[in-house]
Design goal:
heterodimer, A: alpha/beta, FAD/NAD(P)-binding domain, 5-stranded parallel β-sheet, B: 108 residues, mainly beta, Rieske Iron-sulfur Protein, 4-stranded antiparallel β-sheet, 11 strands, binds siroheme, binds flavin-adenine dinucleotide, binds iron/sulfur cluster, binds FE2/S2 (inorganic) cluster
């Protein structure tokens, strides 16, 4: 027997959902043919935003792969656009001329993005944001262009802006409305949203209108000119100003259209054989642009197509969320209210939370939540059920959890859910799926769950729920603290064990160490490699080979990297003392290389800020000064005060003492940075009390303090010893620092090292045991002996300069010269 | 159609290191050489705040951004969990010890 033929035009979310519902009800009822203009099987259009932001791959957003169509015997034509419907003959014609007849036709052609009719709208680099092809173009543009402009600050525009920002572009949003998302949010919530997007680096031009897209001279967009005359440069412009139902085909076939194909409550058009669902329809005068209502339409249309009549679509209430990671926003219904409405508002700008409920006649009619959207679904339910609120009224704003006894309800929401309840709305993940993954794959944290189930990986608003499910499923295993402090994920050994092994087994390079100690990943990671490199060279000076590739860029380039990728140059200026000749050379270099800023540092020397990496060797050469190591886990500065040579209170030559210390320690690497200071009297103008080694002169000699720190947490240095002569200052300082170099863990500053081993231990080694003191100092001198100044070394050795030379592309090098 | 351009010899890129290909008016390209001598080319701009990835520490097939330590997989050009974001990739290959680059980005 011949089955009736069903043809679907539009292989998108609403159409295919209708087929899914239909196949579930009546699997063999029709012979089905599908035409889709896009060259893809049905995919989850709403997930284009996470794809753009680099959070998901294209593959992972396919909803129905080709085998699904095959399994259900569907004749699929992708990359085929239907160009005509002949309602008399009951046929449709595709753009390749092929013709198919139908008994029932389903139109689900979606909508097309509105392109503003501006001069320049056809330039290359001007896009809409609707499908995979648009997204691919945006990703490609982000790889080679710097600046993007998004026109339109609605949901789509903001997701586009966020995605492009995530891909490293500079993004400006031009929005004509009075505030962002003016159809979903009130002014206050929109302001919070804008502030937090600005904190992510997106710039906004609110209440401003675009006048023209300006040609860069090569047929590509180069800037956007605004109505008020300003112009904003950009190589990519994304228009996200709205959608228009795709009705051309239906209109040409004589179906009644009015801003959408007009359908009845059974989703039938005026031709009883033709149904329409999705964004292309106008139902009771309303068009929808979100998936939830389309899915409700799909259910009703499927019932009618399956011959199970009676279902009727009454229209939908809408709730929206913004899919920008880390931003929680929920809005539903009539958030603006009116004269007959009451508003309940909770606003805590400090915590970034804003909630507004709109009530009319004791019912909830609108919700707008920012920052804390946990109760969004609950409010939405109250709205849809049109529940009267008199009993809840007082606590309504505090959410569902405030209603239970003692407030446990909220924490147990995850536990109380049924396995079939949906947890993640974006990815359609149910509780059962998450519990199964946790149990079967041994997941312990939210990130694991994200990776394995995709739950909480899109808008993130269900993260709290996922946490609850984790803790309910794992019980006490959840949040279990790690048993021992391993150096990093590449090994189970601690810093102490690794240090000891390097010493005891005479290990000399990183590969050998990793092999010997059975490193888990053959190549280590960015946290263990620098530590190993330091342990090797400090344990086996002149024997172990330094590995520049295992050093942080600062120590590899001998300059400090800055936020824009340029570098700073701090020449050594021992004890803070300089000469007119040095200052002249610094000035000349600063002029010649257009150094952006010359600054006196907090360490008594001069910093040249904003230097291009390529210029570093030349600058060092022309400065003719040594490196100040202002970038390394190394000696930084020795600050000094004026001292007895000029100061009326000075008891000793603190400046000279500082210079002697800096000379001795200039090329010293250490577990963390090391700062010294020498003051000429207890007035302590050099601030020796907060240095790793602080020296304070008194009439009868010098007091030495250790373990001070003026950084993240101020720590006052502790008294170590009082000595008589300058030579003793050098000796005790050397011995203490060598002990630190040999026994502290990488990235442990002196204060934390002393806290760990105890000041008594330090004193026993450095103060009480003269032999040990001498031995320590000797080992330090041996290690530093003959180590060249790194800047000079790079000026002198061309091979070492490779680090600083960019590669040319195109012009200079040919196959032959390589 | 690929447009391969020879940019340097493989041994001119340090093992577990990278070199930068500068481009006029366009984002620079970082060319990485991993411990196994595989090469990868990414836009030299971290998805977090634009840090120059070429300056990061390379281990395995990943690089850690020098500015705030975001880890990116070199094969996919994608931030490793739990970070998010990704960068443009470019075709690159080694022929007879020469590194050849195509400056047209790979479609994701
Ligand atoms: C240049 C300078 C600021 C200035 O203009 O005055 C500076 C600049 C930086 N400091 Fe500092 N610190 C500078 C003096 C200080 C001081 C004061 C001092 O040394 O007398 C302190 C507190 C003293 C101390 O360290 O105990 C200081 C405590 C820090 C800390 C916190 C360290 C801690 O253990 O608590 C960091 C972070 C770190 O090193 O991990 C830091 C890190 C930095 C870095 C290197 C951040 C970085 O990694 O990029 C800054 C580089 C900026 C750039 O773009 O070049 N800077 N920094 C000062 C350089 C002094 C010099 O001549 O070498
Ligand atoms: C980037 C982005 C993010 C979004 N985020 C969300 C969100 O978070 N939440 C939400 O609820 N909604 C979101 N939406 C909206 C949602 O994707 C749409 O509402 C939904 O996809 C509409 O489904 P549809 O089937 O009506 O149209 P579509 O999914 O667009 O499907 C229509 C299909 O028909 C094809 N077609 C058109 N004409 C023809 C023809 N003549 N012949 C053959 N084929 C044709 C089109 O090529 C298209 O593939 C988002 C949309 C975008 C673009
Ligand atoms: S205090 Fe130091 S680290 Fe912080 S911004 Fe200033 S220079 Fe940079
Ligand atoms: S810029 Fe790369 S981690 Fe911040």
């Amino acid at each position: 027997m011949n089955k009736p033929k069903l043809v679907l035009i539009g292989n998108g979310m609403a159409g295919i959902r209708t087929l899914e519902e239909l196949l579930a009800l009546a699997p063999d009822h029709y012979e089905i043919t599908v035409f889709g203009a896009e060259p893809h099987p049905n995919y989850n259009r709403i997930m284009l935003s996470p794809v753009l932001a680099g959070e998901l791959a294209f593959d992972s957003i396919v909803l129905n792969d080709l085998s699904w169509y095959q399994r259900h015997g569907i004749d699929l034509h992708i990359g085929r656009r239907i160009v005509a419907i002949d309602r008399e003959r009951c046929t449709v014609t595709a753009d390749d001329g092929s013709m198919v007849s139908y008994d029932r036709l389903l139109i689900a052609t979606g909508s097309r993005p509105v392109m503003l009719p501006l001069p320049g709208k056809d330039l290359a680099g001007v896009l809409a944001y609707r499908d995979i092809a648009d997204t691919e173009q945006m990703i490609a543009a982000a790889a080679c262009c710097r600046r993007a402009i998004v026109i339109g600050g609605g949901l789509l525009g903001l997701e586009a802006a966020y995605g492009l920002k995530q891909r490293g572009m500079e993004v400006d949003v031009i929005h004509l409305g009075p505030w962002l998302l003016e159809r979903q949010l009130d002014r206050q919530a929109a302001q919070l949203l804008q502030t937090s997007l600005e904190a992510r680096g997106i710039r906004f031009h609110i209440g401003r209108q675009t006048q023209e897209l300006v040609d860069d001279g090569r047929g590509r967009v180069g800037a956007v000119r605004l109505r008020d005359g300003d112009s904003v440069p950009a190589e990519l412009v994304v228009m996200a100003v709205g959608i228009r139902p795709e009705v051309e085909l239906a209109e040409a076939a004589g179906l009644q259209c009015n801003n959408g194909i007009v359908v009845s409550d059974s989703l039938q058009t005026f031709d009883a054989r033709i149904y329409a669902v999705g964004e292309c329809v106008n139902h009771r005068g309303v068009g929808y642009g979100l998936v939830a209502p389309l899915f409700e339409m799909a259910k009703v249309a499927a019932k009618h197509l399956a011959g199970i009549g009676g279902a009727s679509y009454p229209g939908s209430q809408l709730a929206t969320r913004l899919k920008v990671s880390g931003i929680d926003l929920f809005s539903a219904g009539d958030y603006q209210g009116g004269d007959d409405c009451e508003e309940v508002i909770l606003s805590d700008a400090g915590a970034g939370v804003y909630k507004k409920l709109v009530l009319r006649a004791d019912k909830l009619v609108g919700v707008c939540l920012y920052g804390d959207t946990g109760d969004g679904a609950w409010y939405f339910k109250l709205m849809r059920e049109e529940r009267t609120l008199s009993d809840l009224r007082e606590r309504l704003i505090f959410g569902e959890t405030s209603l239970g006894d003692g407030g446990h309800q909220g924490q147990n929401r995850g536990a109380a859910m049924a396995d079939s309840d949906e947890v993640c709305g974006c990815n359609g993940v149910c509780k059962g799926t998450i519990v199964k993954a946790i149990k079967e794959k041994g997941l312990f944290c939210v990130d694991d769950v994200k990776k394995h189930t995709k739950a909480a990986s899109s808008c993130g608003s269900c993260t709290g729920l996922v946490e609850q499910i984790l803790s309910a499923t794992l019980g006490s295993d959840f949040q279990q603290a790690p048993k021992r402090k391993a150096m990093c994920g590449c090994t189970d050994l601690s810093h102490a064990e690794v240090r000891a092994a390097i010493r005891d087994r005479h290990l000399l390079d990183i590969p050998a160490t990793m092999r010997e100690l059975q490193w888990r990943s053959g190549d280590g990671c960015s946290s263990c490699r620098p530590a190993l490199n330091y342990y090797l060279i400090s344990t086996w000076p002149h024997e172990a080979r330094d590995d520049p590739q295992s050093r942080f860029i600062n120590e590899r380039a001998h300059a400090n990297i800055q936020k824009d990728g340029r570098f700073s140059v701090i020449p050594q200026m021992k004890g803070g003392v300089t000469t007119p000749a040095e200052l002249r050379r610094i000035a000349d270099v600063a002029d010649k290389y257009r150094v952006e800023q010359v600054k006196v540092t907090g360490g008594q020397r001069i910093d040249l800020l904003g230097v291009n990496k390529e210029d570093l060797p030349a600058i060092w050469s022309e400065l003719g000064m040594n490196s100040g190591h202002g970038y390394g886990k190394s000696l930084r500065t020795v600050k000094t005060c004026v001292g007895s040579r000029f100061c009326r209170f000075g008891t000793q030559d603190s400046t000279g003492m500082g210079i002697a210390l800096e000379t001795m320690l200039a090329t010293m690497w250490s577990p963390h940075k090391v700062k010294l200071a020498v003051s000429g009297c207890p007035r302590n103008c050099a601030e020796a009390g907060i240095k790793d080694v602080g020296v304070v002169a008194v009439d009868s000699g010098w007091e030495i303090y250790v373990g001070g720190n003026g950084g993240i947490k101020t720590e006052v240095a502790q008294f170590l010893v009082k000595v008589k002569t300058g030579d003793e200052v050098l000796l005790y300082s050397a011995a203490f620092l060598q002990l630190y170099r040999e026994e502290a863990f990488y990235l442990e500053r002196t204060v934390h090292f002393i806290e760990r081993v105890g000041l008594d231990y330090i004193k026993a080694q450095v103060v009480d045991d003269a032999e040990q003191r001498d031995a320590l100092a000797r080992r330090l001198h041996f290690a530093l002996d003959g180590v060249p100044d790194p800047w000079r070394a790079r000026v002198d050795d061309a091979a070492l300069r490779q680090e600083f030379t960019p590669l040319p592309v195109g012009r200079h090098r040919t196959q032959e010269t390589l | 159609m690929m447009h391969w351009q020879a940019i340097c010899r493989l041994d001119e890129i340090p093992l577990r290191g990278s070199r930068v290909v500068k481009r006029e008016g366009e984002v620079d390209i970082a060319v990485f050489r991993c411990a196994d001598d595989r090469v990868f080319a990414l836009a030299d701009r971290c998805p977090h705040k634009g840090g120059p990835l070429s300056q990061g520490i390379v281990s395995g097939h990943k690089v850690s951004c020098p500015l705030h330590g975001m880890q990116l997989g070199l094969e996919e050009g994608r931030a490793l969990e739990p970070d998010e974001g990704c960068v443009g990739r470019f075709p690159v290959r080694v022929v007879d010890g020469r590194v050849e680059l195509d400056t047209t980005p790979i479609a994701p």
